[in-house]
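Here we describe the complex-level prediction in full. Unlike the single-chain runs in Section 2.1, the two entities below were treated as one system.
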Amino acid sequence: MKKVATPEYDIKDKLKYHVSALSTAAKEVVLPLNITTHYPRERKKMPDCFRGYILFDPERCISCFECSFVCPANAIWMKEAPSGRYYPTLDYGKCIFCHFCVDTCPGGALKQTKIHDVAYKDMDEMFTLTEEMIEPPEIIREDEGYVEYEIDKEDLSLKRTKGIDKLIVDVAPSQGVPMVSLCVEPESCLGCGICEGMCESGAVSSLKEDGMVRMKIDVDKCTGCGLCVKECSMQILRLVRK
Amino acid sequence: MAAIGVSEWEVKIPEKPQKDKLYFENLKAKVIDTNLCSRCLTCACVCPVDGIIATDGVEFPNYEEECTDCGACVRVCPRFVYEPKSGMGDYIEFIAGRSKRFKGQDGAMATELIVSAMEMGMIDRGLFVGRDEQWVTEIFHVRDPEQLEVLPLGGTKYTFASVLPELKKAARFTKKGVGIVGTPCMVSGVRKLQQEFPFFRERIKLVVGLFCTENFHHDELTKYLKEKGVDFSKLIKTDITMGKFIATMTDGEVKFKVKALEEILPSGCNVCTDFTAVESDASVGSVGSAAGFSTVAVREENAKKIIDFIKKKGYADFGEADPAQLDFLIGHKKKREENIKRD
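The structure predicted for the assembly as a whole is:
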């Protein structure tokens, strides 16, 4: 059997460790270190890319359904607005805050905020309608300052600043990866013009001439939403990088 | 920009005989209303809005609003410009076969060809026609030979099946290719699709044709058979042999002369002269071989490869087939040329 004994220190080491312990205690008496954020009186300052509550701008939305397709939690449901357009609604009971929808939105209609503390009374209330996504939610702010963590090589320290942190981010909306729709098999095109009907930005055009249909995708106008790609009955359109 | 794809292209559209009307109206006037339509549903396969449906005939309800007037239906219709095919057609090999693995109408060689092609890796999807208890046809996408053990497939139904509308779906999702079994009119439709669109040319790898004298509307055939005393809950198989329609049930048979069925013969079949599916990769049928065997006319190289594969694996017994036995029915269908009205 292997016996585990207490390590043996010589007197020099023992003295060194005692002095170190005493000095830490003395330091705490004079300058106490507190690494806990005193929420809600103060907030942690989040980076601009923080994945919080999602805001929606109907002006920028092209109703491409991309957000609802990409959502891994199936939290986004497209609802018909009185105008006939489809806009997203978001169920925060399902949302996992991955912000894939924000990243994928070709028009930048969805926008991230740093709000992470919205309270709901029940599950039904967590289902957020389009109208409720336009303005940031009402939250009671009790904070008077914000804290930032500074991580040194050895130690963690806190930087407290007075003032209210802005939770709405002023970064430019995500443009996603610039994509454009192109035809990969022009010989198989029916010339049905469904793609033209689907296109919200007017990038696709078909011109009927004598015995011929001229199809054109305006590369500059195309937002890369992929609606035409999805609807093409022959599946001959592809999204490619601009 | 990436080299893949183009942003500008041109599509050739066919000429309209009646300029002021939609393409579908032209098709309706020239093919459907003149009783030329064989109900092969190639038009429904290609229609971009999936508007064309099969009821008693071929229809496009609400076409005034939905039709995009692309002309694809006219481009692929094998009878818009009708060039009737007839005769035996070219073949490399003419043999009789009986599958050891599957049960079907005779030797189940159509099923065997598709499944073997799947095992060879030539195709990864086969379109099969099944039926329910009331003998209503259903289409199944078979992606694994094991599916055939549980699905009610194989055997002739003698009623129209909407196979081709499913073909576009199959062609969309396939990785290797699609195999399809069809009547001569459907084979002509598939060939037309392949001729017009590379999309189908690249994806449809095997077309098995069936020997076909005629096909019936489900409602009319079931009504007729019920009058003759056929109980559908007991019906096992239907067959046409030696000029007689035989319905085999669990407790006996009902036989009558095929000629009696002429009163319900669909108009599209009345103008069809193709008995052997001349344009197929391989034609399969009952006539020309001993009972329990299917006659196989191997026409193209891809079908020849499959037959060689079946021989190598020993999936089927092979025997002699006699092309001369088909002459009567080929001649019988050739006579229908008279029924085609020429402008």
